[in-house]
Amino acid sequence: MTQIQRARDGEITPAMERVAEREERDPEFVREQVAGGQAVIPNNHAHDSLDPMIIGREFSTKVNANIGNSETTSDLDAELRKLHAAVHYGADTVMDLSTGERLDETRAANVAYSPVPVGTVPIYEAVKRADDPADITHELLLDVIEKQAEQGVDYMTIHAGVLMEHLPLTDGRKTGIVSRGGSILAQWIEENGMQNPLYAEFEEICEIFAEHDVTVSLGDGLRPGCLADASDEAQFAELETLGELTRVAWDHGVQVMVEGPGHVPMDEIGDNVDRQQAVCDGAPFYVLGPLVTDVAPGYDHITSAIGATEAARAGAAMLCYVTPKEHLGLPNAEDVRDGLAAYRIAAHAADVANGLPGARDWDDALSEARYEFDWERQFDLALDPERARAYHDQTLPGDNYKEARFCSMCGAEFCSMRIDQDARDADGEMASIDGDTDLDASDAAAVNLPPVGTHDASGVPDEIEIGGVTFTPETPHADD
Ligand code: SF4
């Protein structure tokens, strides 16, 4: 049975217990959220190394990192390093979007080595296996989906909402259909003159998902690819279909989340979230950015993190990160790091603003360390401790500067916090700064414990054999 089926039966599963522990929430509250479809616990029965986590608007905002190879870059070692970087820098889930060679091996390695849920987009493999995308058959799609479910994939993006009747609505857009899955399915529909096979076979797909407890992530194949196309008729027509499919999946006992745009002007993001929540009966919203401006290629981790913050503030449950390479090239491990940092900032900023239990305590503890010139603690508490330490040490590397009451930004004479401290010391009445936030006692301890989350990687094997080759890559543990 799936987590939602067991939740509806009133059972608090071990996964719900673990999630409650990580989120500092009541297990019964977790069960209610899963039973009602407002939260999902992606947790394929065959994913042995997984540490269960939850995605829902009532819980801490999660971040997904896309990894995977492409036609031009296919290297299994490099893929495992990317997985490691993603988990190390705080990804709550990863999506293997490989479109290059050795798809099965790459997916198997990622599932075996990942303590976080692994998502995929099965249409990519179907395209690779067919001679021509137009030749993809219903049987091939179901075969790919079933095989990936058996491999242990925790959630799959299914672009079942791209309907034949929606396609004319994209005429006149500035950037057409920008979702890879959406564009492939549109081409298939046009060339075959038939309805989207993922829509036609959706109930069959749900039966496979229910058997393995794969969460369906209803893809937004008609999402806008630029500000000019945001919130248009095509996008919202597809959303209505995703609402319909949400209820079909729930009827089959399948956990559901719904994907969202893309590129959206800042002032439209809140309405987009409200609309999805209304149309999809509160199913978790998983947004891709959105980018709030189109003019900054090379910096789209920033343009999109701004939109992601706004979306999470409005109720989005998971943010799909964007790296600086977006629109430009395949990200490497350093890009993964930069993208994740941007998105963990977005997620945390929204959690603070939304009053998630204990979220602010992390900020307060770091601020106190900063004011007390406790440099080591400030580095340890930083979202990216390695970078904070490296930047400080670029100009003041000596150990003596770890106790200095200044850094190189203002210098000793003009350090405002030093001046403020001295003034307070001189006047006892001002010495009332509270510097005792105890993070271990905070509700945040298990959620946002610095530096990067609390994935338990003890289920990850020391080595795996893929295609006759033994791999012993670094264990992707958040604390290493
Ligand atoms: S020198 Fe400036 S930036 Fe550095 S610790 Fe003091 S106030 Fe902060």
UniProtKB/TrEMBL annotation:
Residue positions binding substrate: N66, M95, Y124, H159, S179, R180, G181, D220, G221, L222, R223, E259, Y286
Organism: Halorubrum salipaludis
Gene name of the record: thiC
Similarity comment: Belongs to the ThiC family.
Enzyme class: lyase
UniProt-recorded name of the protein: Phosphomethylpyrimidine synthase
PANTHER family: PHOSPHOMETHYLPYRIMIDINE SYNTHASE, CHLOROPLASTIC, THIAMINE BIOSYNTHESIS PROTEIN THIC
HAMAP family: ThiC (MF_00089)
Compositional bias (Basic and acidic residues): 1-11, 18-28
MF (Gene Ontology): 4 iron, 4 sulfur cluster binding; phosphomethylpyrimidine synthase activity; zinc ion binding
GO biological process, any: thiamine biosynthetic process
Record's keyword annotation contains Nucleotidyltransferase: no
Protein origin, superkingdom: Archaea
Gene3D superfamilies: 6.10.250.620, Radical SAM ThiC family, central domain
Pfam family, one: ThiC_Rad_SAM
Region (Disordered): 1-28
Catalytic reaction equation(s): 5-amino-1-(5-phospho-beta-D-ribosyl)imidazole + S-adenosyl-L-methionine = 4-amino-2-methyl-5-(phosphooxymethyl)pyrimidine + CO + 5'-deoxyadenosine + formate + L-methionine + 3 H(+)
